[in-house]
Each structure stands twice: as C-alpha cells, then as structure tokens.
TrEMBL record:
PANTHER family: ACYL-COA SYNTHETASE (PTHR43201), MEDIUM-CHAIN ACYL-COA LIGASE ACSF2, MITOCHONDRIAL (PTHR43201:SF5). GO terms for molecular function: medium-chain fatty acid-CoA ligase activity. It comes from Mycolicibacterium parafortuitum. The keyword Hydrolase does not apply. This is Acyl-CoA synthetase. SUPFAM superfamilies: Acetyl-CoA synthetase-like.
Length: 462
C-alpha cells in the first residue's frame, strides 16, 4: 500500500469537494477505494496490469487512483488536456511495457509518470511503493505535517508535485485536501478555497503563485480569511523570484518555503523549513530530505530511496542519467557549508553566446525585479556569428508598461554585458507547459517564425 486510509479516524475529513464543499470522511473514502479496487478486478484487470487514468483534481480520480493501486495495478495518470494524438502516443508507450528485464516493470511499481523528453517523446518514470512512501514521508517531515493540517489542490494531480506533495502526503498523515470546483486551480476562487479548507499550507509552482498575487479578489477581507490558518506557503518545480516570495509573504503573512523536486526523484528532494532564516529561504531550496546530494562538475546529483531506477523502455537514456545509483538532475547548483542546496539553472537551458554561457534563469530573475514587470522569460535567439543571442519576453504589470530602455537600464550593472537581452518583446502572457513552467521552447519557436514581435535593445556587445 502507498497510503493506508484505515489508520485514520473514520469520521475525520479526508476531502472537501467542489463548490458545494461536500466533505468525504476517511471512512467513506476507504470504503469507496475498496469498491473501486473490486470494480477494477471485476473488469478483468489483474495485479501488475498498467492502466491510464485521466487526472483532473476530482474525488472520482482520487478514488480510482487509490482503488487501482489497492488492487495491485500500475497507474499512469494522464493530462486531460492532451490532444488525441498525445493521448494515443502515451497509450502506445504504455502498451509496449513488459515486466522484468532491464527497462521493464517490477512487482513493486505503483505508478508510471510521464515527463517531457528532448526528442518530443515522453519519458516514462516508474514510481515504486517504496519510493512513494519515502517521498511522502520526507514532505511530511520537512514541514511537520500532521492530521491537523489541511490544504488546497492548486497543482494538477497528473504531475508529481500535486500528486505527492498535496494529495498523497496529506492522506498519509490524516490531513484534509480541498479539490477545487473546476477540477483545477482557479485564481478567482483560490482565496475562497483556502478559507473553506481552513488551509494551513499550500504548494504550487511560481507561475501559480504569481497569478494568485496578480489576480487578487476585490471583496474586502478575502485575503484575511484565506490566510487565517496558514502556517506557510511551499513553492516547487521552478525557480521562485525573490520579489514573488516577498509578495506572497506580504500578502499572506507567512513564510514562503522553496523546495526542489523532480519526477525522477518521486518529486521531493529538498525543501526549506519553518526554522530557516529569510536569507536561507531566498538563496536556497534547503537541505536534502529525501536524498543525498553532491555537485559533480557543477551539476546536482542525488541518490536515495525515492530515486527512480531509470526510464522504462529506454536503456540508452537511462544509462546517461542514472549512474551507479545516482540521478544526474541536469540542474546547475551548489551546496554551502551548512548543507543548503541552491539551484541556479538547467544545463540544457544554458544559452551559448560565442562561448559565453548564460543562465536564462538568472537573467529572468533580474528582469522580474524591474519596475512594471509581472513575469519574464529568457530564451536563445539563433545568430550566424555568435551561435545564440539572448532574447526575452516580458509580461507587464497591469497599468504599467515599461519601455525597452527601462528594462535594459534595470539589467545593466546587475548582469554582465553579454547577459543583457539583445531583443525584448512585451507580451500579454507567456506560454506554459502542462505543469505550469515557462515554455521557453515555444517562445524560441515563435521568434524563429516571426510570431513574436521582438524589439532590438541596443545592448549588443562584440
């Protein structure tokens, strides 16, 4: 079992569902999960079979997921917004899986998680029952979560962030999860959701945090009600700008705790705690909790009970990413004398301008600190001489539209000359991936097709 619902008081609230705020107790959820397990078996599924479940943030998905795992099936959560071709591709990949042998399934596997691949073919990561247990335990331990805690499912449950940190950890400790009425995050109801759940914490990607800040409710007292029980806010899956962290802390009056995780590590690797200072929270993602970390040639490597054994069906890719029990994360980072891990960017995101290596995350952080900037994304532009130049897209704060000159002035003195964006576009919104990360590849593609109106900044250097 990944979650034993029967150990919690049967009348305690497990889920709060939809606009009606219907409550489902642990006793009711346990009975429904047992019924779902029997239904899967009655439909001919057998232990070790792989099934795909479309994963909106609904009670039906939670019951089906836990029921399938209780029946010994292996569950692959799927994004309901995928086009038919994407769904078909993933189903074909799942259908190709076999038990045993290198790159195959094992008896301990509980889930198969999809994560993006550089070739366009999704990678399949096996999550074992042991790894899920290790990861949820580390989330609970990092934040001191107990049955007294409640949260709102702001992240989709077809990704590890929402599945491990929000849902499974909460159900493991006997806490409460509110599932939004829309089956997903809604900025317009978010504060009401926090208030209805008497949420003590929530976790999200930086994009969701920024949306929550910029789409504030207008009714007096909304934030006060929403934050009444909050102890902390967690941020994970992408770098959090200091300005966003400060805005959240001002808005909700609680500390923001950055965390670090990835699908190949069954989500949680490290996280700042309530005992960490503001300085530690602003410059790091805390000390590893579910893993041991080291830095190899600037890259973060991690190992531990929650680390996947490799990618299913792809021995070649696995051999380059999983090395003697260590996961090469592909992230650039450092570990300080106190053991705090800082992540400075993605190796594959690095822009190579004539041999100068530029971290887009660093440039984005500087741009995000400029007056009038709500969001910023930095991406490579092809160049016949330098190979790549620095491009940027900026979403302006409502009512304020910074000029290109103002943005460049905000960068100079804080960035090296070669790091300053040479072309900038002011856009209404940034393209996002399914899990809420900035889609830099889409921006680069739009710029190459002249779909993005980029203005020269005059910042070019030779």
């Amino acid at each position: 079992m990944t979650v034993d619902l029967s150990v919690h008081p049967p009348r305690s609230t497990a889920l709060i569902v939809g606009s009606a705020r219907e409550t489902i107790s642990y006793g009711q959820l346990d009975a429904a999960v047992s019924g779902a397990a029997r239904a899967h078996t009655d439909h001919g599924f057998r232990r070790g079979d792989v099934i795909a479940l479309t994963a909106a943030n609904t009670a039906e998905f939670v019951v089906d997921l836990l029921g399938a795992i209780r029946a010994g099936l292996i569950v692959a959560p799927m994004d309901p917004a995928l086009p038919q071709s994407g769904t078909r591709q993933r189903l074909d990949l799942l259908g190709s899986l076999r038990h045993g042998g290198p790159g195959g399934l094992t008896d301990d596997d509980a889930m198969v998680m999809f994560t993006s691949g550089t070739t366009g073919i999704p990678k399949m990561v096996p999550w074992t029952r042991q790894a899920i247990t290790a990861s949820t335990a580390s989330v609970a331990r990092t934040y001191g979560l107990t049955e007294a805690d409640s949260t709102v499912a702001a992240m989709p449950l077809f990704h590890g962030h929402g599945l491990i940190a929000t849902l499974l950890t909460s159900l493991t400790v006997g806490g409460t999860v509110l599932l939004p009425a829309a089956g997903r995050f809604s900025a317009h109801t978010f504060r009401d959701d926090l208030a209805a759940a008497r949420a003590t914490w929530y976790t999200a990607v930086p994009t969701v945090h920024r949306i929550a800040l910029t789409t504030r409710e207008t009714r007096p007292g909304d934030t006060t009600r929403a934050a009444a029980a909050l102890r902390f806010v967690r941020s994970c899956s992408a770098p959090l700008a200091p300005e966003t962290a400060a805005g959240l802390e001002s808005e909700f009056g609680v500390p923001v705790l950055p965390a670090y995780g990835m699908t190949e590590a069954t989500h949680h690797v490290s996280g700042c705690t309530l005992g960490d200072t503001t300085d530690v929270r602003r410059r790091s993602v805390g000390t590893p909790a579910a893993a041991t970390a080291r830095i190899v040639d600037g890259e973060v490597w991690v190992t531990g009970a929650a680390i996947a054994r490799g990618y299913l069906g792809d021995r070649a890719l696995s051999s380059g990413t999983f090395v003697e029990g260590w996961l090469r994360t592909g992230d650039l980072g450092a570990i300080d004398a106190s053991g705090n891990l800082s992540v400075t960017g993605r190796i594959k995101n690095i822009i190579n301008r004539g041999g100068e290596k530029i971290s887009p995350e660093r440039v984005e952080q500087i741009l995000a600190g400029c007056p009038g900037v709500a969001q910023a994304a930095v991406f490579p532009l092809p160049d016949p001489v330098y190979g790549e130049r620095v491009g940027a897209a900026v979403v302006a704060t409502p009512g304020i539209r910074p000029t290109t000159g103002e943005l460049i002035a905000g960068c100079r003195g804080r960035l090296a000359k070669y790091e300053v964006p040479e072309h900038i576009a002011i856009v209404d919104a940034l393209p996002l991936t399914a899990k809420g990360d900035i889609d830099r590849a889409a921006l680069a593609h739009s710029s190459s097709n002249s779909q993005l109106s980029l203005s020269p900044t005059g910042a070019a250097v030779t």
